[in-house]
Design goal:
Blueprint: E1 2-7, E2 10-13, E3 18-26, E4 28-39, E5 46-51, E6 57-59, E7 67-72, E8 77-82, E9 91-101, E10 107-111, E11 115-120
Parallel strand pairs: 2-11
Antiparallel strand pairs: 1-3, 3-8, 4-5, 4-9, 5-6, 7-8, 9-10, 9-11
């Protein structure tokens, strides 16, 4: 089995910073793509940033230049450094890891439990 543990959300003033982390544990062969999504009330879940095992990275236009995604392959962990936060960044943030598991030898998308980020203006 695989578990994801998210941390790092909270309340911050506009212009401030937060760092999210998401660590995978369990019977893992490999972690391929790692990404962050967010969902604001009444809206659909949207991609924020993603990094592949090959090293490519992409961001939503709304966060380019402010957010940075990174990964620690040895720890099966992905991070999201969020700077210059705006009120419109307020949402529940979910990590998504594409993992090949030892038990099934299949590659499956796993989701974190979500962490609330609230930016006050």
């Amino acid at each position: 089995q695989v578990q994801l543990a998210e941390s790092g959300g909270g309340l911050v003033q506009a212009g401030g910073s937060l760092r999210l982390s998401c660590a995978a544990s369990g019977s893992i062969i490999s972690v391929n793509a790692m990404g962050w999504y967010r969902q604001a009330p009444g809206n659909e879940r949207k991609l924020v940033a993603v990094t592949t095992s090959g090293g490519s990275i992409s961001y939503a236009d709304s966060v380019k230049g402010r957010f940075t995604i990174s990964r620690d392959n040895a720890k099966n962990t992905v991070y999201l450094q969020m700077n210059s936060l705006k009120a419109e960044d307020t949402a529940v943030y979910y990590c998504n890891l594409r993992i090949t598991t030892l038990l099934t030898r299949r590659t499956i998308d796993y989701w974190g439990q979500g962490t609330q980020v609230t930016v006050s203006s």
